[in-house]
Amino acid sequence: MAASQRDISVSEFFAKNRHLLGFDNPRKALLTTVKEAVDNSLDACEEAGILPEIWVHIEQTANNRYKVGIQDNGPGILKKQIPLIFGKLLYGSKFHRLRQSRGQQGIGISAAGMYGVQTTGKPVKIISKVSVRKPAHYYEIQIDTKTNQPKILNGKGDGIDIPPGDKGNTYIEKHGIEWVEQPHGTRVTIELEAKFVRGRGSVDEYLEQTAIANPHITLHYLDPDDYEYEYERSAKVLPPEPKEIKPHPYGVELGRLAQMLADSEPMSASEFFRTKFSRVTGPVAKKICEGSKVSTRINVRKLDRSHADKLYHTIQETKISPPATDCICPIGEDLILKGLHQVVPGEFYAAATRPPSVYRGNPFQIEVGLAYGGTAPTQNVTEDLLLELLEETDTRTVRQFLIHTFNGLGGEAADKLVKEAGLKTRQNPSKLKPKERQKLYEAMKNVNVAEGQQMEVMRYANRVPLQFQQSACAVTQTVLNTNWRGYGLSQSRGAMPKGPVTLMVHIASVWVPFTSESKEAIANYPEIQKEIRLGLQSVGRKLGMYLRRRLKVRQQSDRREIFLRYLKEVSTAVSEINGAKRDALYDQLVKVAKKHTAEADMKLDDRGRPIDEKPEDMNLGDNVLIVDPSQHKAAINRVDVGEEASDEAE
Amino acid sequence: MAKKRPAAATTRKPKVKLTPRDKKTMARLTGLADRVVKAADARRDPSVDIPSRTLSNVRYSPRKKIIEMGGNKNRRQLFDLSQAKAYMRTMLVASGCKQLLDQGKTTSLRGLFYMLKHTIEGAKENTFDDQNECDTIIEDVEVLLDSIREELHLYAENRGAMVGNITLTDRGDVINCSRMGSGGYAIPSIVEPEVIQLDRKKCDAKFILHVEKGTVWQRFNEDRFWEKHNCILTHGAGQPPRGVRRLLFRMHNELKLPVYCVLDNDPWGYYIYSVLKQGSINLAFESQRMAIPDAKYLGLRSLDYDRCDLSDSVKIALNDNDKKRAKQIAKYPWFEKKRPWQQEINRMLKNDFKLEVESLISKDISYVTEVYVPERLDAKDWLD
Lengths: 650, 384
Description:
The complex is a heterodimer. Helices cover about 40% and strands about 15% of the residues of chain A. Chain A is α+β, with helices and mostly antiparallel strands. Chain A has five domains: about 10-195, Histidine kinase-like ATPase, C-terminal domain (Heat Shock Protein 90), CATH 3.30.565.10; about 250-315, Helicase, Ruva Protein, domain 3, CATH 1.10.8; about 335-375 and about 455-545, Ribosomal Protein S5, domain 2 (2-Layer Sandwich); about 375-445, Helicase, Ruva Protein, domain 3; about 550-610, no CATH class. In chain A, about 45% of the residues are buried.
């Protein structure tokens, strides 16, 4: 027994437990790979102060096998760091600091590489370039799971340097290395066992949502079917760089505190608290020390576990001002509006950035964006794209196909479409006859699916979209618990509100509390829920005002029409009873109607102003954007597939 | 628009001779239409004032012991968004009735609904989508013109049945209600003297027993209860329609027969009794012709569970709606001052269950006809 007990390497552990990192199935593996690479690229670009431009290329190499290439225009990576970053688990710059960034642990991209090697045997290929004049480095790496060390395969274990200029270009071309010519940047290529799908939880959705929350990036995406998606940046400035902060005493657990004490270089207890934590001043440090009967002058090295225990308890009882919140960089209301408008078709947009707040000693900030209206994705889809979608779907029934393919399309709406198209509910979507396909397409064009459509919620943590475990997430739960009926949406108890609404909720924090390592859902801290709720209410109020005004105006224009509609009936009925002249009576009634509606139009609102404002002209503050939905770029049905229009369909 | 309707039908066909009653109705219809034209010429909203058919507009007359309609009226305007459609429908129903009068025909409520249902010109909207929408408007027109349904040449579906020692004349046919087999005589919707004639000499029955439902009525009929006790047996299939109520009224008054009711012990049953006795809130204008203030409530009583020693299994729990309704009924002015009724309702609420007449079957199939009702009648044990 004793002989068989030995060390477990991190890589071995995660190789066996890959579901912890989001590699549970081929479909998710593909998404996680893209996600980790894109997140790393964005972090790198932003830290270097470069406006990010990302290329994502997914290509099918065999059945169930895909090659994923992600390139950025970032600063490039130093030669000796490359193998470690991509070939060693838990190697990174982000774990030990408290700073708002997308990545946290340093597992992601190397785990993706490991997964690729394990499922296909193909190494991870990295090419990185620091500047135009310097050579680019090219590596083919495998991770050695036993030792958690990278193994370099090319250039006799040293990698290859590709000289700059034309000479390098010919080399790249000759050896079939994938690279979009750039002065600097990094490209990682991983081949892995995967499954490419569209719809919910897909790469398409992830990239679209990323584009919304990061309006400063440009994204080129080539999918396995050779569709090219382009997301142009709508903001030309980088978000301000987030500051790194020291931990706040409230957020430190006992074990961590003991560890910090043990690791500290020799200094007095007072100095230790003042320098290693944020918001601890001399008097506060003194209070902590006195409260736990420790001298302020004692060398921290001499403090043992029992001291740490006392100190920990005193900290909880001592009043310490909340952490500084300037270390958080929200997206900003303006950019949220821009991002949403760029990608989600609609007529009304609102955004709210809450002031920063604190949970367990960690500062965080909540932002909420809302888009209302616009044509449904089903009406935007082109016939060609629909045929493609029908071909590649793995759903069993047309109804399922519709629900899965088109975001936010509820079961009710799907039933309506199927009925309108005259299809049977159990029909297999890939076996539809051409005529039936045509009918389905027409039905999608004609049916108004906005009724019965559910609110779609996009969740973000530090600008990264969260796509799974929706129901476990604090955001979803807060949305469900908010009463949307007051804001002009219909909602059944305990369900998502109905209507063509897209909601985005962003939490920015130096340490986002995820429920698991695969970073899919935000934990339920009451402080976080409260902030989310306040944010939701803020955009909800604006939406309510807009909808009420819209309803009012619509009613007024309906008024005259309704009267005129019934006048014919009334005059016919009356003339049948007493033989009065029908047309003369009708004309007379129309005159009365005109007189009456004119009066009604002049009615004043609560403040005594005549109601003649159009809802588009309402002034609801800076954080609201109202557009004409028919003029919206994404609402127009495009002929060339592969742009946003087709992406909307996902 | 009524494109399909032959607009000139009335002129082409020879005019039917109007009865004096029809003439009166016709005058009222024309008066309504004339007022519309006049208002339009004066550029006013041709609104009509319809007496309101709500609880707030009914008055209980302690002297007459019936519910009477008050003087409140609701104005229905053509140029009001929420009322425009209802106004249009009111005029449609009026014109439909005028056609019926012209042609000397009667039709069912559903028939009128189909007669008037069509798509409005230039819109995707129908004049009526549902028969209920039409039925309420018909009631509005009744109160508006102060003409009852029969005068507008409308009738409802036949509902309710009758059997017993009585012979009557229905449209000239002599009907002997003691020879109606198991089905009984279906009570027509219109039982006015022009249709049904009653004769005191042809009636041997001494009282009328009204039960709630057809199933209970079957039990009594199968046991030949009416023969043994020399009575008339009726049912109204739940809330009795106007035909049944009117016929009960006429038999009660013209033949001087007392009326006893055997209904379920639940708020619904209480209300059926209340409608028979004082008239309904919705049709308060008809109380004069229908309410039977002397009707007696024989059962089921909330004390019957103990009195008849019923088993636990027959209880049906009261739901929230039942409780609410029971409290409402207890507050009606015609129940409020009656101690026995307050006790009865309170006892049901305290029991927290309701009883159906059928629950007596759990004792014996014929318990209700052989023991329960005879005992009550002998003891003169009823609620008034």
